[in-house]
């Protein structure tokens, strides 16, 4: 099985995420891939510090699944993340998601 990084170059610049295939892809493949790649800013559920620790334990190459809700952040103050999206089909500035995380799985281990 090919690793994601063997097939695509993925990089982040400020709050923008970019991906580029290492080989030519069809428009159909591009349309499928785009909503499945995301720049997610995690907001950890209250009273669940073990979820924060679990995120720190994740390593490059781990299969990580986050469960929770896409949220809109309002009145966050001068250090506000950025406008966030609550859909997975948009692209460009403001398309990153703010996610309220209340469950995480790394490999076969689950924290909730």
Low-confidence stretches: none
Structural class: alpha+beta
Helix percentage range: 10-25%
Distance, first to last CA? 30 Å
Overview in brief:
This protein has 112 residues and is α+β, with helices and mostly antiparallel strands.
Give a structural overview.
The chain is of the alpha+beta class and 112 residues long. Helix content is 18%, strand content 34%. It has helices at 4-7, 27-33, 49-57; strands at 8-13, 16-21, 40-44, 64-71, 97-106, 109-111. The strands form two sheets. Strands 3, 4, 5 and 6 form a four-stranded mixed sheet that branches. A two-stranded antiparallel ribbon has the order 1-2. β1 (8-13) and β2 form a beta hairpin. The longest helix has 9 residues, at 49-57.
SSE order and pairing:
Elements: H1 4-7, E1 8-13, E2 16-21, H2 27-33, E3 40-44, H3 49-57, E4 64-71, E5 97-106, E6 109-111
Parallel strand pairs: 3-5
Antiparallel strand pairs: 1-2, 4-5, 5-6
Key phrases:
112 residues; alpha+beta; four-stranded mixed sheet; two-stranded antiparallel ribbon; globular
